Please model this.
Amino acid sequence: MAERIIPLIDQRASALRAAVPAQPIAANGLLSDTLGRPLRDLRISVTDRCNFRCSYCMPKEVFDKDYPYLPHKDLLTFEEITRIARQFVAHGVRKIRLTGGEPLLRKNIEVLIEQLAALRTVDGRPLDLTLTTNGSLLARKAKALKAAGLNRVTVSLDGLDDKVFRSMNDVNFPVAEVLAGLDAAQEAGLENIKVNMVVKRGTNEHEILPMARHFQGTGIVLRFIEYMDVGATNGWRMDEVLPSAEVVRLIDAELPIVQLEPSAPGETAERWGYRNGSGEIGVISSVTQAFCGDCNRARLSTEGQVYLCLFATQGHDLRSLVRGDATDEQLASAIGHIWHGRSDQYSQLRASLPADSGSGARRVEMSYIGG
Ligand code: SAM
Model:
């Protein structure tokens, strides 16, 4: 049997120091990268810790009690995050997603949400402020999150069968508590709730139809994610990927669906609507179908490094600027300079990479840069 775990190579320390360019780059919302892609979406990882040990993300064998999680002093404070986010917004960001690790593990996360909710886009509108969570603490926190200004939430859930779910989260966490979290999110008035299901062939593909039946007609959009070769520890293998096209075929055979228009440029999910009008599903095909052409996302790691692609091997360190004496203008210029030089299109180039590059042996972990 192929070895499942690939030794960890810690790439976190090797960030490039963000430079302030000699010619200031104005933050006027008009920034674009070398491929003409604007900056619209910022994902912020607020912790590299998680209370789940999903084997495709933070396998127990690697993320054990000896794993070198970031010390608290290395984490960006809420004020530092907001200061950086403000400059990203000035460059055109309209949507901010808090993620991790498990973002609801970060103490007083509502305080950060309040600060971010006060930011305004270049044209004076509120941000689209959202959060991705494993749902384990959502029943307790949904009301406070909504009150702090969170607009919506995405909950990760890989199956409805309790045994399958407990084994996939690998900490024996019951599915009923995540479902209670979803109910609480709906009751709290969080809108546009999504559920993300990572599909692993041979592990939870039999959960696709029960999940579709369960969420059809609830207003919650279920999205199926292809198991990706992110990070360096999940021992990814192509034969465990179930292509989205198969998911669509499977659902369509029992619950007829039709393809819908994308809701926004750079949208990661392809949308499909139930023909009987009872809602929609999405498929995210980052393995079988590249979608780099209009990717407008940047990621800010827990300790303040900017990553320009989920599959990047190196970040750009902004924390040293923020903790140094850089002005807001210099910070904005540095961010502008980083985005200006961006040329990443990993998913599209994947086909031309060597066959073993799927191991991702030199990539940073998703729990660190944020999924
Ligand atoms: N802890 C939060 C959660 O569970 O949603 C946020 C962080 S998690 C890294 C964000 C998303 O990435 C989750 O929906 C998770 O299922 C997904 N993810 C993690 N590893 C993945 C992989 N190898 N392939 C596809 N999706 C993955």
